[in-house]
Design goal:
Two copies of one chain form a homodimer.
Chain A (H helix, E strand, L loop, with lengths): L1 H5 L1 H32 L7 H13 L21 H6 L34 H11 L6 E3 L2 E2 L1 E6 L10 H18 L3 E5 L13 H11 L5 E5 L3 E3 L16 E5 L1 H6 L6 E9 L2 H10 L7 H13 L10 H11 L1 H4 L3 E4 L15 H7 L12 E3 L14 H20 L4 E3 L7 E3 L39
Parallel strand pairs in A: 3-4, 3-5, 7-9
Antiparallel strand pairs in A: 1-2, 5-8, 6-10, 7-8, 11-12
Helix pairs in contact in A: 6-14
Chain lengths: ~450, ~450
């Protein structure tokens, strides 16, 4: 009817204008939402506020999945095509298809196992430590021997700059670990083809714990996580009665079973029988193919907010803890007092504010221990955020941490965006009288005790 | 006259054939020479044989210069264009031209200095060590505290795969250093704009020595050098009366002043007054621009076999030692009994033979401690060797070293060319009874002495 009043042409014009108008309004709406996401929230400190910010960011993710490491997977002949269609999973040890032969096919009738069952690890370990005083599990009282474990693919990144960021990331870890007397293991090998992708860390962790009884704590850290507080020492004594420390919130895990109620991109695991049992309980959802796919469906159904994709280690942990709290909960510490893992989206725009108002050593929202670039994936082609924003912020986070190292030597970056450094303290002919403001030159947490044997075989078997 | 006998056309044909023939002969000649270079020499152990091989390889280098690190320089606004035309120098801290401002211009009337003169460093250091027993300069008797220093540019490599090889290289160093109780400092900052390029290590080394009196030896290692003997421990006690250890040959340096009579891509420098003086004596040829260019001419004239290019730190060291042996020679150890630096060209094709006939722990031509990819420059665009050969051989060298780490855990690469790993030892429920063949799991050179204070402040002040 309208066209008879206004004329067909006019009606078409109006219809076109309306369509354009709708599109314009939609774009405007999306822009506002995205801007709101970027600008972030105000204060931090409660899981709800942290969490709301993370949820907003995640709302617009292209493919919602936990991205705890920095890489783009390559297809191997043994990978399912489904896996690659849905998302780009991190596989720290993906193997080129052009290499000789396939891995041995696992026997489908045998349930997956991380290795031969061990039930007396605490006893084995105690005996070994007593017989090997040259390899103590404590460097000093309240200072356990820690191995930081991380890694990436043995293949060059698909995205040319990806390897550059992996390089900066490992330099960042080398710096923190040198200051804190922590050793590093950088993995580039896939030890178990069935546990490819984010699950690859489980066989690796088990292997390292069992090979190195002198390690008291193993610290897994994703390659897309960087240290941004060089002065913060983990409060080891806080965990004397716990075996597994992750950043997270009890309510989000045990009450809500929220899939991001904890983060497995940076965690501490004590070397003990309990941990071996935990790894065994954690692993069943991991074997790739039908097991992992079906497990993914269960996790999506059972966890709050979890999108559809194959089982990942983080969701599996939420599920495990959420359903078996009585069995595991007393030895798990969900830490939210400092950023053992800090989601980058709510931190990186505040670095200047932090520099203005705070100082290193706090480890929390005021000066985060770890800034973790979940979802960025500079090594691959498809991240969940704009490449430009990710890389720019990763440079800033790197420089934010690097400044704390450089100031030891009297230098700093010209700005958080700049690779260049400038001098902030002149050299003198009495270099040992220099006061480095942060006390990182010879930090107390690195000092060794050289004349006592009483603590050297201290164990905290759980 | 010839054309009247044979006809003009025929003469032209003959001329063309002759030209083609000459070209063919030239190509054949070059091919033979290159092949001879690749095939390498037979036995090793004498500097003449090693040296001859190196000379043959160098003969065909596009731009003859020492390439001790793995990078392609970027032009900064403060760099001279001459520098970039002649060669591609490594500048571990080259700065992007798009960044704010220039560095401060040095005062041309003041002679270059690495820093304020210090004359009592041994005394300062002894006092500090006595007052800081928590930071001993010896880990165990005959085991000094060592800091391995390396680095690369803060910019992404021009060649996309370059950063991937930097990443593998640092992983390789992390592995060796973890086994040997050595800390790592990975530098990505240019501390002194005048000393850019290969000279950048001098201000860095001085800064680190003076900041860390607990370091007994600083081990500089280029980013294009990799550890290929994970079991070899440097014979520290051999150097108890020396302060500076480089791979090289006395005759080549002191008698011939041969520009590759020693190598500054991997060296040990004791933390003492003598070393500060050495750095001061070494540095004058370094400041970029006229000083470095003119010094380059002197070095080309004075050293045997040195091509034309600006002064580099290695040539300057040969010149310094060759002309001032009395002053420095007694504290310099030119080591040729093992490959503190091992030129890749004469090593990489022999890895399979080494695996067949020898074992790790030898450190010499039978199983080189270090394989150093001088001239490869995967980070840049223009290396001196084919990119394909360099990358392929770097992968092999990496895997050769990595196998020694993987075997600790029961794995090995499927071949020296393969990123994939395979199991060589099954897991058991008694992991601590495993014998790792190379004894690298808990090596004796890593064991700490936990109950003695007599050695902890041992100094070897020279």
């Amino acid at each position: 009817m309208l066209d008879r009043c206004l004329g067909a042409r006019r009606v078409r014009q109006i219809q076109r204008a309306l369509r354009h108008g709708k599109i314009t309004l939609l774009c405007l709406f999306l822009t506002v939402l995205v801007l709101r996401g970027y600008l972030g929230a105000g204060k931090f400190g409660t899981p709800e506020q942290d969490f709301k910010e993370i949820k907003d960011h995640l709302y617009f993710r292209k493919r919602a999945e936990p991205h705890r490491v920095l890489e783009e997977a390559q297809t191997t002949t043994t990978e399912t095509t489904t896996e690659n269609k849905n998302y780009n999973t991190f596989d720290p040890t993906k193997i080129a298809v052009d290499e000789e032969g396939d891995d041995e096919k696992p026997d489908p009738s045998k349930p997956y196992s991380l290795g031969p069952k061990i039930s007396d690890w605490d006893e084995q370990r105690t005996k070994w430590l007593a017989n090997n005083p040259g390899f103590p599990n404590f460097i000093a009282p309240n200072k356990p021997k820690v191995l930081l474990v991380t890694g990436s693919s043995p293949k060059p990144c698909e995205n040319p700059v990806g390897d550059h960021y992996l390089l900066k990331s490992i330099k960042n870890k080398i710096d923190y670990c040198r200051l804190h007397g922590i050793e590093i293991f950088y993995n580039m090998a896939l030890l178990d083809a069935e546990m490819a992708g984010f699950w690859a860390k489980l066989p690796l962790i088990r292997k390292l714990l069992l090979s190195h009884p002198e390690i008291e704590f193993l610290w897994w850290m994703d390659s897309d996580a960087m240290f941004t507080d060089m002065a913060f020492e983990v409060p080891w004594e806080r965990y004397k009665d716990h075996n597994f420390v992750m950043h997270g919130w009890n309510e989000m895990v045990y009450d809500e079973k929220n899939w991001i109620g904890l983060n497995t991109g940076s965690f501490l695991l004590r070397n003990c029988q309990w941990s071996l049992d935990m790894l065994d309980a954690w692993s069943p959802m991991g074997p790739k193919g039908k097991i992992r796919d079906d497990a993914g469906k269960i996790l999506t159904r059972e966890l709050k907010g979890r999108p559809v994709f194959e089982a990942d280690d983080q969701s599996a942990m939420v599920y495990l803890l959420g359903t078996q709290r009585d069995k595991w909960g007393d030895k798990v510490y969900l830490e939210s007092a400092y950023y053992l893992h800090g989601y980058w989206g709510i931190l990186v725009d505040r670095y200047e504010e932090m520099i203005q108002n705070y100082h290193p050593g706090l480890g929390d929202h005021r000066w985060p221990l770890v800034t973790h670039f979940v979802g960025c994936k500079p090594c691959g082609k498809f991240g969940d955020y704009s490449v430009e924003r990710c890389l720019k912020q990763m440079d800033r986070a790197f420089n934010f941490g690097d400044n704390q190292i450089l100031q030891i030597y009297g230098f700093t970056h010209k700005s958080l965006a700049s690779r260049r450094v400038k001098r902030i303290r002149n050299d003198t002919s009495n270099p040992l009288e220099v006061k480095d403001d942060l006390g990182l030159l010879h930090p107390s947490f690195k000092a060794v005790k050289v004349s006592s044997s009483s603590w050297s075989v201290l164990t905290t078997v759980q």
